[in-house]
Amino acid sequence: MTDNPNKNSKYLCPYCSTQYQTFDDLKTHILKDHKNEPIPAPEGMIAMTINGGSYSLRAEPELTLYDLIHDRLGLIGSKQFCDRGACGSCTVIMEGRAILSCMALAVECDGKQIETIEGIAEAEHPLIESYAKHHAMQCGYCTPGFVVTAKALIDKNPAPADNEIREALAGNLCRCGTYPQHPVAILEAAVEKRKFPEGKKRSLKPTEDADKLSFEAVKQDALDKLKGGE
Amino acid sequence: MGSEEQTRMEEMFDNLRADKYPLKEYTYIGKRIPRRIDGVVKAAGQAVYTMDVQLPGMLHMRFLTSPYPHAKIKNMDTGKAEKLPGVRTVLRYDDPEIPEFAPISGHTPTADEPPLPRIAHFQGEEVGAAVAADTETIAEQALTLIKTDWEERPFNLDTEAAPLQDTAIANLEMYPDSNHINEGLLDVLELGDVEKGFAEADKIFEFKSFRRLHTWVGPERPCGVIKWNGDCIEAWVKQQRPHIAKRVISKWFGGIPMNQIQVHCLSQGASFGGWSQTNWNMGGHYCAAVIARRTGRPVKWTFNRREDFYGGSMDEGAYFYKVGAKEDGTITAVWGDSILSNQIYPVFNPLKHLVENTRIPNIYCKHKVVMINKGPTVPTRCEQNSAAHAFTMIFDHVAGELGLDPTEVALKNDGADGHDMDWLNQQKAKRGFEVRDSLRECVEKGKAAIGWDEKWHPPGEKKLANGRMHGLGFTWTHEWDDSAGSSEMAIRIERNDGTATILGMGCDNGVDAESSYCQVAADELGMRLEDVHYNPQFDPGYFRMTPDSSTNMSINGFAVRHAARILKKKILEVATTPVGKSQRGEFPPAFPDAGPEELNIKDSVIFLKADPEKKMPLSELVGASFNSGPLVDPEALGVRTPFTVPLFAFGYHTQTGTYQPNQPRPRFCRQGHFMEVEVDTDTGQIIVTRVVNTNDVGKVINRASCEGQQYGGTYMGVGRGISEEVIYDPVTGVMLNGNLLDYKIATILDSGPIDTILIESGMGYGPYGVVGIGEDIATLIPTLLGPAVYNAIGVRINDFPITPDKILTALGKV
Description:
The complex is a heterodimer of chains A (about 230) and B (about 800). Chain A has about 230 residues and is an alpha+beta fold. Chain A is built from 8 helices and 7 strands.
C-alpha cells in the first residue's frame, strides 16, 4: 500500500493490496491468483463476545458500544438516559468491569468480553427475582443499568456491605427514586448467589407468604445471613 | 344485566360518601405481594419503551431549534441539508402541508397551535424545520446545514419584572398586550375578610419566597413513531394519557375515523405529567405523520436530552405573604400575592391548600401568571407544587415567629374551608366515614419515628460533634387525589385453566397500578393472586385513568371491583344453572342441587358454603377448549365439555373530583413529613440524614407501591430542594445546564434512611376508602428543606433550591 505505483488506481485487491486501474483488471487478477483462497475479512470489522456468543461486526469509528448493542443487535435492555456518562442506565460489563456503553467506542471493544442485562437474565441470576420481589423499580427505564452494576459488584464482592452497595450505585440515576430498595434486593441476591452459584430457575408463580416479606425483615434476614458467613 | 351489583355500580357514580360496600375481609388488598407484575420484565431489560421501537425502513426525524430566546425566521435555505446523502425529507414551516394552526394540545384541549412554528418564544424551541433521514446522526448533521435568517426580538427572562415589561413582550402572537396574561382570569382566591383577620392578630409579619425553575427529567427522551397503513395511521406514543393522542390525531388531515387509528402506548420512561402535557408532544407526531405519508416510511421523531429540559414545573416565580396569628399559633388571616411564569393552565392558586386544609377564616391571594421567554410550565408531579410551597413557608414562619413547635401550629389550625375540626368531623360523620383525626395520627406516629420530642430545639442552637449544625423540619397538608375521572375495565375467565384476565388500557408509568388491580380482582373474585393477570390493551379502546391523571385507584379501583363482582355472580350462576341444551343433549351445571347464593369462591375453587368439601376448581368449571373451540365435544376422545357460556364482565365508574369548581367534598385525609438534616457551615452543604413520611392513604391496596411513592417522592423532593434548577444566561437567554451533569437530580447518596408510615383511616372517597399518594411527597419535600435548614442555622433562606452558596451568603461567609 505504501509504495503505490499509481496513485490514481481505484481498485484494491482485498487479498494482496495490489491496485488496478479498472474493475475488470482486478477481477482477472483475483480469478488468476486468489481463486481458491477463502474470502478475506473486510476492513472495519471487530470481534466481540457478547453474553457468551461470538460476534463479528462492522463498526464505524464513531459508533458507540451502546449504539451497537441497542440499535444494531437489538439488545434493548441497555438504556440511554443522559447520553453522556452521567446516569449509568447503559451500563454493561466489559472484562468483569461495569462500564458505560455510551462512553465506549465500539472499536475500542474489539476482542473484548461483554455482558449485558440480557445475558445476566438468561443466566438466571438471582438479582432478577430479588428486584421484582422488592419493587426495586418503578418506570423501569434505569433498572437494567442498576442490575448490571449490582451484578458486577457481587461478582467482585460476594458479600457487600450496605455502604459498599450504596457507593457502587452512586453513579446510577433513578428519577423515580427507587434507591432504598436496591441495597435490600442486592443483599438478598448476593446471599442467594452464594447458595446457588450456578443459578436457580426462577419459579414462574411465586407464592411465598406475603406477610414475611416486610422490608425490614428481609434486610435483617439478609444481614444475619451475611454475618453468619453463610 | 340488571344485577344488584349493576345497581350498586350506578349508585356509586359521583361518590360523595364513604364506601358502603367494602369487603368483610382482605386476602391480598393491603398486603405486600410476592412480585410486582412487571418486575421480572423490567429487571431483565425486556420492557419495551417507545425509544426502543425500530421498524423496517424507519426514518429518524429531528427538529431545528432556535438559538435565540425570541426570534422570527425571516427566511431559510434548506438546499444543502436536502442534498446531504441519507436525508429523505426536509419539512419546512412554509410547507403547504403544514397548517398555521392544528389541534396538537396536550392534556387539556387548548386552542390550535402551530405544529411547526416560524417564531421561537424560547431558546431551544423546535421551530422552522424537521429533517427525516436514514439515521439520527445524519438528521442532526443536516440540521447544521440549514441556513436561517433570524429576526431577533427583545426577550425577558425575569418573572418578577415581567408584568412591567412593555418593550419585551414574551409572546406577541398569543399575548400581544402584556406579559401578565391572566388579569381577571382565575387570579384571585378569597375567603372571609383579611383586614378583619389582621385586626384580630397578636402578631403580623410579612415575607417573600422564591422557587426557581425546575423540570421533570424523564429518563426516556421525548419521542414517538408514526406509520401509515393505507389510510389508517399507527402511532407509538410516549404520552401518559394515550387516549388523548388518539382523539387529537382523529382531527388531523381533514379527519381520521377513530377506528382507523391504532395507538401503542408501551412502557414509559416516566415524565411525571410534565412532558405529556405539552403541545410539543403532539406537534412532533404531526410533523412525523406528514413525512411518513410523503415518504411511505415509518418515522421516529426524537428530542435530545437537552431539548427535554426546556419545559418546567409551574411553581417557578416569586411569592409574597402577610400573615396574622394569635400568640397560641391560631392563624387569623393570610394575604398573599404571587407571580408565576408560563403556566398553560393558570388555575392552581398558591394559597389553595390553606382553604382546603385549615380553619383559617380569612384568606386572600392574588395569582399572577406572566409569560417569559422560557419553555412552558406544566403540572410536573404536580400542579400543586406552588400550593405546597406556600403552605410550608407560611406554617413554618408562623411557628418560627411565635417560637412554637410547628407540629402544634399544624394541629391548632387543622380544619377545612375556614371551619374548625368540629365542623370537619361532622362532615366526616355525615358522609358515613368513621371519624378519625388524621393529622393527629400522622403527627404522633411521625414524631415518635423521628424522635421529635427528644430532638426538637430552637433554631441554630444544636451543633453536633462533627461540627455540623443539626436541624429538624416538619410540614403537612391534605392528600390530593383529585378523585375525578372515569374508567372502563373488563375481566374474563380463560378457558382451560380458569385464570382471570383483566382488560384495561395500557399505560405503564411505573406505579405498579396493574398489580393493584389484580389484588382487587383476586380478593373480589375469591381467586389466588397468581391466577389474576392484567392484560394491557395498547390501543386505548378501554378507557381508564392513568396514574398520571392525579387519580388512579379511586376510579379504576371501583371499575375493576364492579367488574369482578358482576363476574363472580355470573360464575356462581353458571355453576348452578343448566346452561342449555344442544342437539347433542343437555349440559347440567357443576352444582345441580345448589343455588348461587349457597356457593362461594376461595383460592380459585368454588365450594358449597355448607359443605366446603363439595368443591370444584374454576379451571374445571370452564373446562378445556379443544381444536374446534371450548363448546364442541371431541367425541372421538370420549370427552364432554362443560359447555359454559363465556365468563366475561365489565365495570365502569365515573365521578367528579375535588378540583372542580364548587368542590363538593372536603378533604379528610392528611399527611405529615419530618426531616432531619446536618448543615456544614464551612461548605454550605446540606446532608439529609433522615426523613419520615406519614401518609393517611385511607386504605392501602398495594403496600410496596405506596411505600415506593413515599421514598421515591422523598428522593425526588430532596433533589428539587437542594440542587435542581434550570439556569438561563441572562444576557443571551440561552439555557446553560440542559444535561444531567450540570442539572443534578438526587442520587442514592443524597438521603439518609426514609421511614414510610402508612395510616389507614378509611376516610377516602375511593373503593374501600382509598385516596391517592403518588403526587404528594415529591411536591411537599422540596420546601421542607427550608424549615429543616432554618432550624439548623437559625437563618431563613426562602429561595429554592437551597444551594450551598445561598447558605454561605445567609451566614455572611461570602
